[in-house]
Design brief:
about 270 residues; 2 helices; 13-stranded mixed beta sheet; mainly beta; elongated; two-stranded parallel sheet; about 35% strand; single chain
Length: about 270
C-alpha cells in the first residue's frame, strides 16, 4: 500500500520531518498522518502544513510505500531510523536522509544534502544524483559510523564520506558505499568498510584507515604519504564481489599502525 506526499508549501528554513517513514505511517489513516508533528525551528507544525497527502499505508512498515514529490532541499530527516518499507523521493532531498536506518530502501531521484545515510545499520539508499558532505559517515563524536547496508550515489559525494565505517564479520555486517566521484578525505577512519568509486577522488583518502578497502576506478589527485604502494593487481576479492581491472595497490595507514590492514586500489 502506498502514501503520496506532494510538497505544497516550500519552507524558507529547514523543517525536521523524521515522522516521514514507513514505520510511522504503517497502520494509520491519512487523517492521522496529516496531523503528525514536524518541527521548524522551535515551533511545532503539522505535516499537512507542507504536504498534500493521499493514499493508504500498509498495516506494517514492510508493506508501506511512500512517494514524495517536490524540491525537498529543506525537508530534513526523511526515513530516519526506518526499519522496513520503501520511500521514493522525486526531487532533491535535504540533510540527514535515512540516518540511523536499519532496513528498507530509500530511492532519491535528485540530489541529497549532508549526512545522507549517516550511522546506517542496514537497508539500502540509492541516490540518482549527488550527495553532500559526510555521506554514509559517523556523526561527530562517534567512533562507529555506517555499520551495515549499502549506500549508492551515482554522482559525487562530499568531504569525509564513508568516515568511521566498521565491518563486523562475526555478525556478517559489511557496510558498502558506492559513488561516481568523491571530494577530499573519502573513507577516513575506515575500520572494515568497502568503498567503490567509479570516477576520480580529490585526494587524501583513507586517513587513519586500519582495515577495509577503498577502490578507485578513476584517478586520485593526491595520496597520503603514509600509504605504501605494495604492487599491482588485475583481480582481487571484495565484499562486493570480484574486482577486475588494472590497479596499483596501496597499504596503510602507516601513521596509525606498523601492520595496517587497509587497502586502497587505484586504477593505473
Amino acid at each position: 500500500m502506498s502514501v503520496s506526499l506532494k510538497l505544497i508549501n516550500t519552507p524558507d528554513i529547514p523543517v525536521e520531518c523524521e515522522c516521514i517513514s514507513p514505520d510511522n505511517f504503517a497502520g494509520k489513516s491519512v487523517a492521522d498522518i496529516k496531523k503528525m508533528t514536524v518541527y521548524i525551528g522551535n515551533r511545532e507544525k503539522k505535516l499537512s502544513d507542507y504536504f498534500e497527502i493521499s493514499g493508504e499505508p500498509g498495516k506494517t512498515a514492510e508493506k508501506t510505500f511512500i512517494i514524495i514529490e517536490g524540491d525537498l532541499s529543506l525537508i530534513y530527516r526523511i526515513g530516519q531510523a526506518m526499519t522496513a518499507g520503501e520511500i521514493t523521493v522525486n526531487g532533491n532531498c535535504g540533510m540527514h536522509l535515512g540516518n540511523t536506518m536499519i532496513g528498507g530502501k530509500i530511492t532519491v531521484n535528485g540530489n541529497t544534502g549532508d549526512w545522507c545515510g549517516a550511522m546506517l545499520d542496514g537497508g539500502e539508499i540509492m541516490v540518482n544524483g549527488d550527495a553532500g558532505n559526510h555521506c554514509a559517515a559517523a556523526y561527530r563524536g562517534n567512533w562507529v559510523g555506517m555499520n551495515d547496508g549499502i549506500v549508492t550515489v551515482t554522482g559525487r559525494v562530499g568531504v569525509e564520506s564513508g568516515s568511521w565505517m566498521r565491518a563486523t564479520r562475526s555478525r556478517k555486517k559489511y557496510p558498502i558505499l558506492k559513488c561516481g566521484s568523491a571530494d577530499l578525505y573519502l573513507g577516513v577512519h575506515n575500520h572494515g568498510g568497502t568503498i567503490l568509486c567509479e570516477g576520480d577522488v580529490e585526494g587524501r583518502l583513507g586517513g587513519d584507515m586500519s582495515n577495509g578497502q577503498i577502490i578507485v576506478k578513476g584517478k586520485v589527485k593526491k595520496m597520503l604519504a603514509s600509504f605504501k604502494k605494495i604492487g599491482s593487481t588485475k583481480e582481487f576479492e571484495s565484499p562486493i564481489g570480484k574486482i577486475t581491472g588494472n590497479f596499483d595497490e596501496f597499504e596503510g595507514d602507516y601513521a596509525v599502525s606498523s601492520k595496517p590492514q587497509g587497502r586502497i586500489y587505484v586504477s593505473k
